[in-house]
Design goal:
By secondary structure, the protein is of the alpha+beta class. The protein folds into 2 domains: 194 residues, Sandwich (Jelly Rolls), CATH 2.60.120.1690; 127 residues, no CATH class. Helix content is 15%, strand content 46%. The protein has 6 helices and 22 strands. A 9-stranded mixed beta sheet has the order 1-2-9-10-11-12-7-6-5, with helices on both faces. A hairpin with a 4-residue loop joins β20 and β21. The chain is globular and about 65 Å long. The chain starts with 5 loop residues before the first strand and ends with a strand.
Amino acid sequence: MRSGTPVCTRVSGGPLRITVLICAILLSGQALAQHAVTEISINNDNIGNLKVSLPEKWQGSSGKDELTGASILEIESRKEKFTLRLEFSYIDLGSRSNDVSLDEYIQNRLSSYLNYSLPELTGSTVDFDVRRFGPDGHGQYARLATQGRDRGKYTYLSHGARIVGQAIVVFTLESNDADESVLARTLAAVSTVRLDAEIASFVGSYTCRTEHRVGFRGRNAVWIPDIVDVVDQIFIVRTVSEGDRFAEKTSWVFVEAGRMRANSWCEEAAVEKGLFICHGASDEAFRMDTGTLRFLYSQMEGYYDVAEDEILAKDQATPFMDIGTCKRTER
């Protein structure tokens, strides 16, 4: 069996008009271990720094998509006959209800993305199998034969995405590797992507992670209590930096990770007492004690300003409160 060959189990059914294959990618370092690798840093304004390990001979150019904010890495090999485009960007995972597992939630998000992006990429409606990859299985991709699809000199098109925390890594590979050797190394490389949390944080700042969320939800014309399992919701409390909108009124700001511009400002008088009491522009509030390192975050939008016909029309996400803990970045 080839190193990196996906071993798949077919899963029938599901709401999507695609065949889903659950695959155990036999990576375990083999696909990259056969080649010298180098770890590089990718900086994104909305995420911070990410690390990815690539075969040493894969040299490329980097850039930024000004429209989407994605960081781009493009690689071309005339010898191995392939082009590879990697896109690194922020993804708002939102929240999921308790009756949906984290894995199911992420798989649904990835399947929806591929169901949209592949027809956009090929310019036509296509039938394709989706395969999972990555150490946590939080990646999906599809591989298409491109004969008759006017893809130029390349025989295969592989396209997929992996979710890492609040980052999404998208790859598009055009290749001639009938043995899937380039694809195997691409999957192995994307599987190494990780968030460099220490570098992404400011020295002396606080990184806070939500542990529980409760709130209310409008459903079928009634309001009900709602306990929500949040997905990697991270907040950062840091000193102001150039370009922050509240720099004129405070030394400290509150930021939602992935959106590095300040959401709200923190009261100076409270900071002097070891407390962070921060206020946002859209009915949100954050409080944290530097002694206990515990925090409260609330979003008070909704309910009072939602008309009854809007509840009937669709589910309404409404007021909620988070609790969690923080840690201080010392270096």
